[in-house]
What does this fold into?
Amino acid sequence: MKLEGVGLRRLTTGIIIIGVIAGLIAPALELFQIIYSSNKIVIAIEVGLLGYFLIQALILKNGGRWKHTILIGLPILFADIFARIFGLYQKIPGFGYFGHFWTGIALTIALILVYNKSFKSIILFNSFVAFIWEVAELAQDKIFSTITPFTLTDPLWDGALDIGLTIIATFIAYPLIKKYHPLAKEKRKKKG
It folds into this structure.
């Protein structure tokens, strides 16, 4: 079975959006006592996403660009699943910094290899994603504090640091991917 191009891209985008929406709605459902544990629902969603991406990367014939992009993005899901299961966000201050930094790398490689975006577009997109992520974290900590105990002393400093890590990762990853990744070099040769 061969799945590539626009169909796979749309399917993957749809699945990610559904996962994000479910992850945002779950704490509200727990707050109103409609469900018992939003954390378990988020873990289940992330395990499902992990399985879907592993199938895409390792089984489906969908092109090297997808495989490399997916495999680089997987550590974020692994880290968050283990952090939620073992409460690492509460036990290890700064554990979430890895996710923010690696998100910058994963988004950069996806935007280069799959979407062929320019550096300016990538930096704007990654900054926007990092900002929205921080707004969502702050809202969750303020609104759902009974569910997700707030552990940071200065949320604005933490938010700025998280956004900064994503942007720094973008500045590091972009030239390395463009210069050394064989598929990015192949695209550059086709353009030139």
